[in-house]
Amino acid sequence: MSELPEHVGRNRDFWNGIAAEYEADGHRNWATEEPSWGIWSVPESQLGVLPESAEGLDTIELGCGTGYVSAWLARRGARPVGIDNSEAQLATAKALQTEFGAEFPLLHGNAEAVPLPSASFDLAVSEYGASIWCDPYAWIPEAARLLRPGGRLTFLVNAPLLMLCAPDNDDEAAGERLLRPYFGMHRFEWSEDDSVEFHLPHGELIALLRANGLQVEELIEVRPPDGSTTRYPFVDLEWAQKWPCEEIWKARKAG
Ligand SMILES: C[S@@+](CC[C@H](N)C(=O)[O-])C[C@H]1O[C@@H](n2cnc3c(N)ncnc32)[C@H](O)[C@@H]1O
Q1: Pick from 47, 60, 133, 239: CA 20 to 30 A from residue 110's CA?
Q2: pTM above the 0.90 mark?
Q3: Is-contact 91 19, C-beta < 8 A?
């Protein structure tokens, strides 16, 4: 196997180490009737992330983790494939496939270099997968390569405003003060673990999508409803109801 980029190797170790903490979330999401998104579990009926019909679509989930987004797509008639960098996360995904009786291919690998032919998919999707753990200058061109003309890219990430207000220790909640520059934001590392994340300013992300033949169709800024809860400490509901902490991008490859 060729050597992994430094951040991919670090994130592999990180995700292999915490995969067990994600088994319960994975199970709940595989079991649910209605999909929900992000750290506040906002229902699909409020956000409209998935295509109305996925019948017959070839889909790839980039950083599929426990694989529930692909499971939702399979139930809607798609033919999903998932790729993930962590063998421990994929072991959970495989166990859930067996329990829920939905088999689809799961690849172990880096979503910045997917070992599949160009123009093989109608939809590429990532919920906190490649979308934050891969370098956008690598994974977005790769997603564009994998899509057929007219294919769609849908991904969920943290909003830039949250990344500007998040303390270096992401066990602490974001405050109401900008802690770092917006211009030039790209690679993020945290003080309490060895993982590496990536977040871009909006203008730079739009330019990158367009440079890869992807036209932005929608940006959904997630506003959690009253009473929403999360197990994650890095933002609280009062903050997330005033400013976007998560956002969902939808782009389409020129066709
Ligand atoms: C928060 S999980 C999101 C996946 C899914 N939505 C879930 O919650 O199970 C993040 C996933 O991204 C994967 N990941 C990180 N870097 C990756 C890379 N370079 N290529 C593929 N997957 C990657 C991790 O292994 C992890 O399973």
Answers
A1: 47
A2: yes
A3: yes
170 lines ligand 1 (CB under 6 A): no
| 4-35 pLDDT per residue, tens | 999 999 999 999 999 999 999 999 999 998 99
Atom index in ligand 1 nearest the CA of residue 66 equals 9
Do the strands 79-84 and 58-62 form a parallel or antiparallel pair, or are they unpaired?
parallel
Q: Which atom of ligand 1 is nearest to the CA of 19?
A: 27
For residue 60, give the amino acid letter: I
Cα–Cα distance measured from residue 25 to residue 29, given in angstroms and rounded to the nearest whole number: 6
Interval between CA 70 and ligand 1 midpoint (Å): 13
Phi, psi torsion values for 83, nearest 5 degrees: -125, 140
pLDDT tens digit string along 207-243? 999 999 999 999 999 999 999 999 999 999 999 999 9
Structure tokens at 31: 């079991």
- Residues 29-52: tens digit of each pLDDT: 999 989 999 999 999 999 999 998
- Is the minimum distance from the CB of 8 to ligand 1 under 6 angstroms? yes
Q: What is the largest CA-CA distance in the chain?
A: 48
CA of 184 to the centre of ligand 1 (A): 24
Q: Which two tokens stand for residue 134?
A: 């891969």
